[in-house]
Amino acid sequence: MKILSGKYKGRNFYMPAGIRPTQNVVRAAIFDLLGHDLRGLSFLELFAGSGAVGLEAISRGADMVVMVEHNDLNAKTIQENCELLGIDLGSKFSLVHADAFKSVKVLSEQAIQFDIVFFDPPYAQKLAKKTLKLLGRSDILHPQSLVCIQCEESEKLEIPKDFTVLTQRRYGSSYLTLLQRVALS
Predict the structure, then answer these.
(1) What is the DSSP letter of 156?
(2) Is 58 helix (H, G, I), strand (E, B) or coil?
(3) Does residue 44 contact residue 114 with C-beta atoms inside 8 Å?
(4) For residue 185, what pLDDT band results from cuts at 50, 70 and 90?
(5) Radius of gyration of the chain measured on its C-alpha atoms
(6) Which CATH superfamily is domain 24-142 in?
(7) What pTM did the predictor assign?
């Protein structure tokens, strides 16, 4: 796999065995929706896998990127990918080796908010709806935050009332939904 754009454009990174990676065409579509220049923005990737989307966000200039991955092999691969690209994991860019749901709660308790949240949970587990519900109840989003979800088209999302749907698109068996958090009066 390769970084598509930005500082690390064209650089290869590792893909752990046994995961369904976000393909280049879908990754390109994600950043067509989110924007190509992420300078000044904070980015959270849940269920990070190889970290492909988070690495792309770093390459495109995001000020802060947090990649959350529970699986040991995948987390090790993300760390190796950061080393390969020369990305220092620390305060600006970090890997959280933990459960996505627990991580959202911890980030909320730490009063950390994100401009963009992307998640692509394992398809067989049907976790997109549960993840979106948790995000809607947490404090990691501010009004105007964007949430980008990649899931199977068959997984019917229930959009919480504090989100508005900006767009929904299908790419093969993947379905991308872009939401924006809205302030409730």
Answers:
(1) -
(2) helix
(3) yes
(4) low
(5) 15
(6) Vaccinia Virus protein VP39 (3.40.50.150)
(7) 0.94
Render the burial of 24-58: b for 16+ CB within 10 Å, e for the rest: eebbbbbbeebeeebeebbbbbbbbbbbbbbbbbb
The span from the CA of 120 to the CA of 143, in Å, is 22
Q: What are the distances in angstroms from CA 158 to CA 40, 69, 81, 103, 172?
A: 30, 24, 34, 22, 21
Are 55 and 120 in contact by the 8 Å Cβ rule? The answer is: no
- What element of type H or E holds 83? helix 72-85
| pLDDT > 70 fraction of the chain, expressed in percent and rounded | 98
Among 135, 47, 58, residue whose Cα is nearest residue 93: 58
Q: What pLDDT does 37 receive?
A: 93
Query: Does residue 83 register a pLDDT over 80?
Result: yes
- Assigned token pair, 148: 């980008």
Q: Which residues contact 159 (CB under 8 A, 6 or more apart)?
A: 132, 165, 179
What is the pLDDT confidence band of residue 125, given thresholds at 50, 70 and 90? confident
Amino acid in the structure at residue 131:
T
- Mode of pairing for the β-strands spanning 163-171 and 174-181: antiparallel
> What is the widest separation between alpha-carbon atoms in the chain?
47
The band of 62, judged by pLDDT with boundaries at 50, 70 and 90, is very high
